[in-house]
DNA sequence: AGGGTATGGTAAT
DNA sequence: TTACCCTACCCTC
């Protein structure tokens, strides 16, 4: 589930549902007992989201750091909650809502020093007002690694994951293997604007939707087509809101989507929309101004 | 029942 | 680059 949009959405939801009220905090599986004990009975006033990291600001200057990793997940239910099922690392019971955390990579208290170290490892987050776009452009300028690897690096831009990588590069016609430094500042600004808009849309929609007017209510899509295997059908049904990610064919031109591996993650690209060595078409002057990110949403 | 896969990241090699 | 972390889900047998 989690790329940056999921994290920022969780921050908003948890503030709405749990902030400013005493919480019963526990660790049903006993894997975060100390953390739970320290927080039990306290309340948090706000949550800061940076890239894929959540920082819950509890009373007495206690900060809870949560990182979902690949498997982490929050579930919500009405208070009083049912007995925990499956792995539940942390449970926060509020007056109206109860939230359970499972599978997270990080769920610990961090002190200011650790927080500073964490934030120093993160680049600008397009979902934050204080994001420094120039840092992103400057980071690309000096990297020879493929652009597809660069935007997955949280120090270059915080919050992008495998889906947004595929979609943001595709819509801009960029070959994932193009060296980052060869993209150029103007195209880098446009790419930033794309990522910012996709992430913001993701927060609003609560899911990744990169196709204008996309509506993934299955109509005839749920029925298997003759000669179509179950995997292909599942991909089509579940992933029709994106252009190339985990699709068999490009949404725009229907060419077969090519899969490859970069840093042990699958890269999805359309060889027609994103020709080898392509940095995309020339940016239009208005977009190249660099104000695109602020205007698009 | 068991295998494959997943929107992530770190540490070891 | 590879191993690992070790949850949930979907599929096949």
From TrEMBL:
Sequence ranges assigned to domain FPG-type in this UniProt record: 243-275
This entry's Enzyme Commission designation comes to 4.2.99.18
**Which SUPFAM superfamilies does the record match to this protein?**
Glucocorticoid receptor-like (DNA-binding domain), N-terminal domain of MutM-like DNA repair proteins, S13-like H2TH domain
Entry keyword Hydrolase = yes
Q: Where is this region: Disordered?
A: 274-297
- According to the entry, every stretch annotated as the Formamidopyrimidine-DNA glycosylase catalytic domain falls at 1-137
Q: What keywords does the record list, in alphabetical order?
A: DNA damage, DNA repair, DNA-binding, Glycosidase, Hydrolase, Lyase, Metal-binding, Multifunctional enzyme, Zinc, Zinc-finger
Q: Name one GO biological process term.
A: base-excision repair
- Which molecular function terms from Gene Ontology are attached? class I DNA-(apurinic or apyrimidinic site) endonuclease activity; damaged DNA binding; oxidized pyrimidine nucleobase lesion DNA N-glycosylase activity; zinc ion binding
PANTHER family for this protein: ENDONUCLEASE 8
**Which family does the record claim for this protein?**
Belongs to the FPG family.
Please identify the protein, giving its name as recorded.
DNA-(apurinic or apyrimidinic site) lyase
